[in-house]
Amino acid sequence: MQVKLANRLGLPFLAVNGGHGTTSSLNTIQHGVSINLRALNHVLVSQDGNSALIGGGANTHEVINALAASGKVTGEALHDPTTTNGGCTGHVGPALGGGFGRYMGYFGLVLDNIINMTVVLADGTVAHVSSTSNPDLYWGMKGAGQNFGIVAEANFKIYHPPTSNWFYAELVFADAEHQIEPLFEAMNQLNSNRSQPKELGTVYPIFTINPQYSKTDPVIVLQFSYAGTSEQAQPWLDLFSNLHPTAISKRDSLLPTEIQTAASQDIDSAVWYVDRLVDISVLWFETGYFHHGTLTRLVLSASAIGSTWRLFPLGLKTYNATANRQVYNLYKQLINEHPEFSASVVQFENYALEGMRAVDAASTAYAHRDDDLLVSFAPVYSPSKASDAIASDFATRARQIWHAGDTAGRQVTAYLNYANGDESLEALYGYESWRLRRLRALKKRYDPYNRFRFFNPIRRNRDDSGHHDD
Question: C-alpha dihedral over 134, 140, 141, 143, to 10 degrees?
């Protein structure tokens, strides 16, 4: 009903739920309809206990806890959920672009666990999407779904937890200047021949400013999550604890519902991205289009408030310690020359890859199963044109440094859910020519007027006649 109303009024629309969303393409919607999915937050476990029907408005905090009550888990993702670490994000939305997380070694990406979906298409009609019903759209939704429809609800595979407890450690390296090379040599040792065990869910170093140690010299904070006991985790933790961190904290015997809080990524501590599409509402419609109910807001104006959090991601095969030192120096320069960027960070994400590798790369629209690592330069600042330019300059240089230090001959790849919006379509959706050709054919069939064009769209321009510029 909301999509049909927006179409009738000639207004753009955007489905929203939860936090995050850093791409610049979100800023291109103005004077449009914001379709709030939060009322669709149901999590219903099937009678056989093998799947759960999850509403498009459920956040990952709700999913984790609802499944735990039934003794189950599903895939889990950091910052964008298979049961997500970043509790403030939605669960279904990030699944459409991938979904990295602690259970990835066991169950693959979040999207690898989607059984079927109920999708509202661009004309407002409803499609039931699975491997046997609209299978072409099922392929496209899993990796490029934001281009084709709004997921009202989806069935996900769920599992008995592979462990009843988690071990978590956090290490601080305050003398980062002298520890960059040995730390990333250890990271490469962990990743050698893709040997990171599936139990080692995440190893997540960041460059950050911690005023407890220094307001000008970045420190390295490393988060370590292991599915098992401290004794089982210790040989892997020794790779980093033997580097003599300034501080180390450990927590053992954590429940699956507790591990996200231990990593300071619970819903109450997450960083929320706020940019140019904001909640200025003057008219509400309450409908019962789906039996759970939903609310739609007609957004008549927008402005920039709060802080901007941008991500400039890059997929890698290996860490180049020299390149990471250059990025460290670049980050330090940003903080010291522009103190208003002091909340910015640099992220290095390592996940167990066994579950993701088990899925045929051609079976979904997700194109980056060959990437072993994910790095991101993440500027955080009060928005202005001048600050936008500074952020883009430093982050672009960081990505260039990382790419130059990666395996020779590799193309630039960027994780869709983190994308800044300046990446090529090939970097987002794959360099094999058949991938974009297939996605464009789906776009022509399911969204010929490019109504879904505000989240890293495969068609970036539109005129009123419905002809598109690819």
Answer: 160
Contact criterion met (CB below 8 Å) for 297 and 280: no
Strand order of the β-sheet with 166-173 is: 247-254, 166-173, 219-226, 200-208, 345-351, 373-378, 312-316
Q: With contact defined as beta carbons under 8 Å apart, do 95 and 81 qualify?
A: yes
Largest CA distance in the chain: 64
Average pLDDT across the chain, whole number: 86
Residue with tokens 């004077």, as numbered in its chain: 31
CB atoms inside a 10 Å sphere around CB 325: 17
How far apart (Å, rounded) are the C-alpha atoms in residues 396 and 460? 21
Q: Per residue in 117-151, pLDDT tens?
A: 999 999 999 999 999 999 999 999 999 999 999 99
What are 259-277's pLDDT values in tens digits? 877 765 433 333 323 233 3
Cβ pair 102, 82 in contact under 8 A: no
Contact between 32 and 10 (Cβ < 8 Å): no
